[in-house]
Amino acid sequence: MLRNIGPVIRLIVLILYPLALPLARILVIRMSPEYLRRMDYLLQVSNIDVPYEIYLSASLIYVLIGMSISGPLIPKLGSTAFLLAVMPLYLLIHPRIVQSLRIKDIEENLPDALRQMVEELRAGLSIFETIRNVAESDYGELSREFRIVVRDMDTGKTFEEAILDMAERVNSELLTRAVRLTVRISMSGGALADVLEAVENDIREVRRIELERKAITTMPCLALALGGLISGLPVGVSIGAVIGVAMMERMGPTYAMLPMYLQAKDPLASYPLVLGLLSGMAIGIIRYGNMKRGLVFGLPLGAAAAGVYLAIVSVMPSFLAAGGM
User: Where exactly are the transmembrane stretches of this chain (predicted)?
Assistant: First the structure.
């Protein structure tokens, strides 16, 4: 699904290529070659054939453009203008979403692929033949990576060098653990089939523990997600009710302060936005032990929470005014 929108995102990024190029030259100096190579590969598998420094620069420019355009339009368009500021943020998190989905697919297929390799090695096939068979099998993103391993070994790399490069490309903790165990035990002289079987058992145990952790943390994460989503509800109901009462009152102190309430209505959307972001980061800590991974949840939660707030503030005054007539 995400690969299908890759060409569209590429076109959106290339529109700002002339503006993004100077900023990209600054960013590329501050990023390590290994990180750039990994992110370039991630964009490539997402069907976005653009250097990562250009992609990042264009995304940042789109965010700035969205914020500068939406600011003056918020008093007139409300939540619609707010979306102009939020939507470009997706460009920044799209590679991370692709990466997390790829890692999940690879880690799910890894134990079965290792089992196939163990059985074929014990049947007398060479390591190169077993890797080629896995590359030609239906293991999703893992088969894609093994095709690259086959290509690397065709060009002269050893088995250990090729799989270490694969671990660096994918950047999965579970795959890296498996590769390091394989290389360490293999270089110490162990039979490769026995090595891979031990690694397979280790991975299955790790995945079992991860599934247990996910089962335990599902309810707290759902509670955090729900809390972040409705964080704007109390404020939205309160400010909406005040505006509605002022509209009903027509005269009096509340009505006299109506312009102030209206001016504060849209800026207050930052409150649920921040709470949504914090809820997402808390989910990342509880679920993965990593606050940064929570940004994948935090940005959509923050945008949705701000949208809930703005929707309530827009609807409630009219609802109260209609009920008071």
Answer: 6-29, 73-93, 221-248, 268-288, 295-320
Rounded Cα distance between 84 and 79, Å, is 9
Whether the CA torsion 103, 146, 152, 175 is positive or negative: it is positive
H helical segments located in 123-232? 127-136, 141-154, 159-170, 173-187, 192-229
User: What's the number of CA atoms in the CB half-sphere (13 Å) around residue 45?
Assistant: 22
Q: What is the DSSP string of 39-61?
A: HHHHHHHTT--S-HHHHHHHHHH
Which helix or strand (DSSP H or E) is residue 239 part of? Answer: helix 233-249
pLDDT confidence tier of residue 15, bands split at 50, 70 and 90: confident
Residues 6+ apart with CB under 8 A from 4: 47
Q: Are 280 and 302 in contact (CB under 8 A)?
A: yes
pTM to 2 decimal places: 0.68
Q: What is the DSSP letter of 3?
A: T
At 5, is the secondary structure helix, strand, or coil?
A: coil
Distance CA 110, CA 12 (A): 35
What count of Cα atoms within 13 Å lies in the side-chain half-sphere of residue 89?
Answer: 17
Length of the chain in terms of residues written: 325
Q: Is the dihedral of CA 179, 285, 101, 202 positive or negative?
A: positive
Distance (Å, whole) CA 282 – CA 226:
13
Contact call for residues 239 and 261 (beta carbons, < 8 A): yes
Taking the C-alpha atoms of residue 321 and residue 304, their distance in angstroms, rounded to an integer, is 26
pLDDT of residue 325: 46
The count of other CB atoms within 10 Å of the CB of residue 283 is 25
Tokens of 285: 């800590």
- What region, left, alpha or beta, does residue 288 occupy, with left being phi > 0 and alpha being psi -120 to 50 degrees? alpha
Within 10 angstroms of residue 205's Cβ, the number of other Cβ atoms is 10
* Model confidence pLDDT, tens digit, residues 22-49: 888 887 788 888 788 878 887 887 778 8
